[in-house]
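User: Hi! I'm working on a homework problem where we have to compare a predicted structure to a textbook description. Could you give me the structure for the chain below?
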Amino acid sequence: MDTKTNPIPPSELIINSDGSIFHLHLKPEQLADRIVLVGDPDRVTMIGKYLSDIECDVCNREFHSITGHYAGKRLTIMLHSGYTNWLGSLDYFFIGSENSLMRRIGLADAIYIASLSIALSLIVFLVMDLIWRGIHQRRRIQLYLIGFLVAFILWTTGTSSFFSRLIGFPEVWWELHLIMLYFMPLSFAKISQEISAPRYTKVIQSIIVVYTLIFIVATISEISGFDGYMNLLFLFYPILFVSCIVITYTLLRSNWKKYPAARYGMFAILSLTTFVGIDALHWEYHLIASALSMTVFSIYSTIPFVFFLIREQMQKDAHLARQNETLARELQESQNEAIRDYLTGCYNRHQLADGIARFSVLANTRGFTFSFAIFDVDHFKTVNDTRGHLGGDHILKQIADIVHARIDRRHLFIRYGGDEFILLALHYDLEMMVAFCEELRRALEQGLDGVTMSFGVSTWHGSGDHMAPLMERADRALYRSKEKGRNAVSGEDECTDTEDAAPPPSES
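Assistant: Happy to help. Predicted structure tokens:
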């Protein structure tokens, strides 16, 4: 609408008695469709010099308005500022078509949107890492990083005009932008505390306390209506700069071999300090010119830091897994040493009672049968005398290897002591056990180079039977094999109850 040819009706604005707009003292037809808002009355005069065909130049209280033409466009230059500290600030202004202006805004927003995608990707990586590790392996630094990235995202959305244009509520987005501006250094200080040497913990904690106090004061001032978030920025930026230097020093002085994350953290905080400093010099102190916010680029320095932390944790997990594997292997070896014979690899005699107990439970509850065999080397003293004790040990190892090659999980093979061995066999009755022992005897005779063995076999007689009588019957059968001339297998059925249970001669 052209206000010069179509005056604004009084229903749209508060109109004074002379027909001018209230507080501005501009008449509706003196207000152009295109308005440039600046932050200082003197700036209105300065920019007004570039206008031609001045239609009006009106001053009233803190408002100064000039309407004229520039490049064929009718403009009104006017003072406007929501914050007193910004008086004297003149931001960039452009003249052009709606499409060209939207392209400019879209290009600026694209930078923010790109940084948002980076921050969201890093959060996804960190969350996946936390989920994969489980609650017991989560580290505080990862949670602090997620907090920092969330604050960065909220700050970026508030800084960009995209979300305010898309969703509305520009005041809310702006307020969110200011809050996150105070929160981001606080979260990054917590991250620095985690990656620096412990001797600098108190220094960084002091910085965190200062950040917290400034944020509290700013919030109280904001709630009280004094624009605390904006007005304290003048003080906040110098404190932020000094604290970043201190944190950088702590990271630099930390042992990078012992705390390798410090070098990546230092790179990140130097980048953050540089970009925030540029923005502060432009937006707050108006000392340099900048086309857009630079802080948004600091997110790219966070990428190597995040990936290093994940890589470092993966390496630690791999090292821990190797240590656990070694410990598990050593534990298994120690357990095996506790239950197995060192020389032959058989179970030791301490496993006999447990084995018979387990087999008897199965036999009594499920109706299984099991049998017992005891066997030793014939004339083992002579073997030691002729071949030496190392030769005797070799014979015992050979016996174990031959027997192990022919048994399965139904069997329990035990070295009882010296040259004596015991074999328990589940699902074997007396006849089957005698036949199996006979096969073992022949295999041993062939594999031991002239050394022979004698066997005594007994079987479980039901719930009334016990280990002692079971072994006693097998001992009698073994003695019977010795009487046969050795190198034989005898079952308990070859012995009578009245036979003397005398032990075999001293020489096996």
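For your comparison, note the following. The CA atoms of residues 148 and 188 lie 6 Å apart. The beta strands are 34-38, 52-60, 63-70, 73-79, 370-377, 411-417, 420-426, 453-459, 489-491. Good luck with the assignment!
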